[in-house]
């Protein structure tokens, strides 16, 4: 795609994003840069939803508010703007906005000069937008309004060409500055208008994560040549846990052993779990069982230098009784894994040293992700794509939790009923600040579990299982010998194996 073509398409796409997502001026100009960088990078069909597309999504997650990013993900014409069909590039945005000469807003001030100066390839394969702020108040102190708000009150022209869009009445900006420039006023304001509702916004339609109308991140059912707004892109996942018949959240889990433990939330029950509580939940092995009837688990673990994490998690998953375990790991870990765990099926990543691309989970009964994964930005992009496309129960641990801690906007996009297994420091990073006591940390974990509708295992001497309904179960069998490197990886493997067996 030529520069001129990419520039025209990026302008039209960003103009409509500015209206639907109510972008501020800073967000608008940053989004234009990101869209142009992506379109200029697309040369072949393989470029459509590869590394450049993942980089675009990562950049936009830094630019947009939480509600804006959720709306963006749910709008196929924004999320997957380009597709290939019948030998030609097509833009889904024109199905929604067929009048190609109509623009709500004017051109960015650098429209004629920007040629990729803030792209990943220019900035050492890193995001220019990470850690920068957008939508800060005007020098006078009053907050900037979203561009759609400004359009509706008449700040912008309503013509079909750029000539009638007078930018002279808009706030003056330094024509030479980039986003995050040190000359920008230094304050602590967040993205966008601080008075804007966090859960509102144009076109939001309550499109939550995993909604049946939601096109998943990297969903295998979403093909680029299927056109615009296809309704059959959603995945159906009825295999969550918290099921009334088995698994975590079972009404009989620790029944009859309730005693109140700290705090002032009287509706929350606390229980100590003992062997007699757990044994009935374990799935017995039939005399005529075979590996296909004992669960098929997938572990995404390990990076170069941390292959041991994938070895420990895989061995634990197998020893727990999973019939078949597949380990997805970088290419350099092949020999180590083949020698250490020969009974596991190896699935090698495209990259030599890191996890870089999500994998299909349709054939698996459980997925564990995180041990030894590393926190490379490419890995971070692949992780959120993996979480969104997963069609089986999820166990998240270690570096997967650390990645979510560094990209907190993504936590609101997690599917329900996931299992998270943080140790105290990992949980403090998830919560955003350190807790002053174990009791405070426990209360925070319980509240987070309710908010995310997740199961959080707060590891410790008496590990606490926080349920989505506020219930807390304590494990009574911990000891100080477990406080060593690798025990968390083993736990991830054990849980993944048990969940996989329970959902056969």
The helix-and-strand class reads: alpha/beta
Specify the CATH architecture of the largest domain: 3-Layer(aba) Sandwich
* Gyration radius, in Å: 25 Å
Shape: globular
List keywords for this structure.
alpha/beta; globular; 12 strands; UDP-N-acetylmuramoyl-L-alanine:D-glutamate ligase; 504 residues
Explain this structure.
By secondary structure, the protein is of the alpha/beta class. It has two domains: 3-233, no CATH class; 270-502, Ribokinase (UDP-N-acetylmuramoyl-L-alanine:D-glutamate ligase). It is built from 15 helices and twelve strands. The strands form two sheets. The chain has a ten-stranded mixed beta sheet with strand order 3-12-11-10-9-8-7-4-5-6. It has a two-stranded antiparallel sheet with strand order 1-2. A hairpin with a 5-residue loop joins strand 11 and strand 12 (472-475). The chain starts with a helix and ends with a helix.
Entry summary:
This protein is α/β, with parallel strands linked by helices.
Give the helices and strands, then pairings.
Elements: H1 3-20, H2 25-41, H3 51-63, H4 66-74, H5 76-79, E1 82-85, E2 88-91, H6 93-96, H7 147-152, E3 270-273, H8 275-278, E4 296-300, H9 307-319, E5 324-329, H10 334-340, E6 345-348, E7 366-369, H11 377-389, E8 394-396, H12 399-406, E9 419-420, H13 424-431, H14 438-452, E10 455-458, E11 464-466, E12 472-475, H15 487-502
Parallel strand pairs: 3-12, 4-5, 4-7, 5-6, 7-8, 8-9, 9-10
Antiparallel strand pairs: 1-2, 10-11, 11-12
């Amino acid at each position: 795609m030529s520069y001129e073509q990419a520039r025209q398409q990026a302008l039209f796409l960003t103009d409509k994003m500015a209206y639907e997502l109510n972008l501020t001026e800073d967000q608008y100009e940053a989004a234009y840069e990101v869209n142009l960088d992506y379109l200029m990078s697309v040369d072949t069909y393989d470029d459509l939803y590869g590394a450049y597309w993942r980089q675009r999504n990562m950049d936009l997650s830094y630019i947009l508010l939480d509600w804006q990013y959720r709306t963006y993900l749910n709008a196929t014409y924004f999320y997957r703007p380009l597709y290939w069909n019948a030998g030609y590039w097509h833009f889904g945005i024109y199905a929604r906005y067929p009048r190609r000469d109509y623009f709500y807003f004017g051109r960015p001030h650098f429209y004629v000069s920007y040629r990729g100066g803030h792209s990943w390839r220019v900035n050492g394969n890193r995001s220019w937008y990470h850690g920068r702020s957008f939508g800060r108040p005007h020098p006078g102190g009053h907050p900037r309004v979203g561009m759609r708000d400004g359009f509706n009150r008449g700040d912008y022209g309503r013509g079909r060409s750029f000539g009638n869009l007078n930018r002279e009445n808009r706030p003056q900006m330094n024509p030479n500055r980039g986003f995050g420039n040190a000359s920008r006023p230094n304050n602590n304001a967040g993205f966008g208008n601080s008075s804007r509702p966090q859960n509102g916004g144009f076109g939001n339609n309550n499109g939550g994560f995993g909604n049946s109308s939601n096109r998943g991140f990297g969903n295998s059912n979403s093909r680029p040549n299927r056109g615009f707004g296809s309704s059959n892109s959603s995945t159906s996942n009825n295999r969550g846990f918290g099921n009334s018949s088995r698994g975590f959240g079972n009404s009989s889990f620790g029944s009859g052993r309730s005693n109140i433990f700290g705090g002032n939330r009287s509706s929350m029950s606390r229980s100590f779990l003992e062997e007699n509580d757990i044994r009935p939940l374990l799935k017995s092995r039939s005399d005529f069982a075979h590996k296909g009837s004992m669960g098929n688990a997938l572990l995404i673990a390990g990076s170069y230098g941390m292959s041991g994490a994938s070895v420990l998690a895989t061995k634990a998953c197998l020893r727990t009784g999973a019939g078949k375990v597949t380990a997805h790991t970088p290419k350099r870990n092949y020999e180590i894994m083949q020698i250490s765990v020969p009974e596991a099926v190896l699935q090698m990543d495209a990259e030599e040293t890191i996890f870089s691309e999500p994998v299909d989970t349709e054939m698996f009964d459980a997925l564990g992700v995180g041990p030894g994964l590393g926190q490379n930005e490419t890995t971070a992009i692949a992780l959120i794509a993996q979480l969104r496309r997963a069609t089986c129960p999820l166990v998240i641990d270690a570096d997967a939790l650390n990645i979510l801690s560094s990209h907190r906007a993504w936590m609101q996009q997690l599917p329900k009923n996931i299992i998270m297994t943080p140790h105290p420091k990992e949980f403090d990073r998830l919560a955003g600040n350190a807790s002053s006591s174990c009791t405070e940390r426990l209360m925070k974990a319980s509240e987070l579990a309710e908010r995310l509708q997740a199961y959080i295992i707060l590891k410790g001497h008496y590990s606490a299982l926080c349920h989505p309904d506020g219930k807390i179960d304590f494990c009574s069998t911990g000891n100080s010998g477990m406080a060593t490197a690798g025990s968390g990886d083993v736990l991830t493997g054990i849980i993944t194996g048990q969940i996989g067996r329970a959902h056969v």
